[in-house]
Specification:
Layout (H helix, E strand, L loop, with lengths): L35 E2 L17 E6 L2 E5 L22 E3 L12 E6 L14 E6 L5 E5 L2 E5 L6 H4 L3 E5 L5 H14 L14 H12 L2 H4 L5 H29 L2 E2 L1
Antiparallel strand pairs: 1-4, 2-3, 2-4, 3-10, 5-6, 5-9, 6-7, 7-8
Length: 255
């Protein structure tokens, strides 16, 4: 477990996610990636909430409104939205991955609970590696743990932040280096230390031996990797978490 420079979820006062062109793409200031417009025939339908929810956004009453389901009526003025020609909802995809379905990657999650429902500022985060089969390899208080994808705890690993990966052509090398790093030393519970030698130590050592050009210059030490790779990604999820919690608490949020 590691106390990384982590996403702060209480700073957001406004989010610019309104489409600024005919394709419904938001302005670059938003830092949200828009996946697609939402068809009007999905009005009133809630997606399977066992999945990490996308946030739905649309403009009405001169406001940007966020919900988890496309509403039949505007939550501000109660106007029926199905007949509004200007009603163009779009989805903001959740910036999380299921670790067991994300091969040859480095993933980050809260040490306890999930980002959306439980994470608080200053909570510890836990970082791990997946192999080409989606098995999750982590170094924690019990020592080295390798969990096959089919046995991964869905509640624990289905809401991770994706940190880095490699293209498929690198999968064999990723697996080879991962196995070599595991065999190099005894990753035992006796070696583990919450501060000095933890999950982050294992991941950094692996990435240093991997020598993949795209991020090789950032894995020389923890601080550089956190500053250059982890922190920019946590800024994106901080915005998503803030909007999600406001929507979940009130049913919608208007900005």
């Amino acid at each position: 477990m590691e106390n990384f420079p982590a996403p702060r979820v209480n700073y957001l006062s406004s989010v610019n996610t309104s489409p600024d062109n005919e394709n419904g793409v938001p302005s670059s200031a938003s830092r949200f990636e828009i996946r697609k417009k939402v068809p009007k025939n999905s009005i009133g339908l809630r997606k399977d909430m066992e999945l990490v929810p996308d946030i739905i956004s649309f403009e009405h009453c001169s406001k940007q409104i966020f919900t988890l389901v496309v509403p039949r009526k505007c939550p501000l003025c109660n106007t029926a939205l199905e007949t509004c020609s200007s009603f163009l909802p779009f989805s903001i995809p959740a910036p999380f991955v299921n670790a067991a379905q994300t091969p040859c990657s480095v993933v980050l999650r809260p040490s306890v609970g999930t980002f959306l429902d439980d994470y608080k500022n200053e909570d510890n985060l836990h970082i791990a590696v997946t192999d080409s089969e989606g098995s999750i390899v982590e170094f924690d208080t019990p020592g080295l743990i390798r969990t096959k994808a089919c046995n991964a705890n869905r509640k624990v690993w289905s809401q991770c932040l994706h940190i880095v990966d490699v293209p498929e052509g690198w999968y064999d090398e990723w697996d080879r280096v991962l196995d070599a790093v595991i065999e190099k030393r005894d990753w035992s519970r006796e070696l583990y230390d919450d501060t000095l030698f933890n999950c982050f130590s294992f991941v950094i050592e692996f990435l240093q031996h991997l020598r993949y050009d795209e991020f090789a210059s950032y894995v020389c030490d923890r601080d550089t990797f956190s500053e250059k790779i982890i922190v920019p990604k946590t800024c994106i999820i901080a915005k998503y978490i803030t909007v999600y919690r406001r929507v979940k608490e009130n049913g919608f949020w208007a900005n």
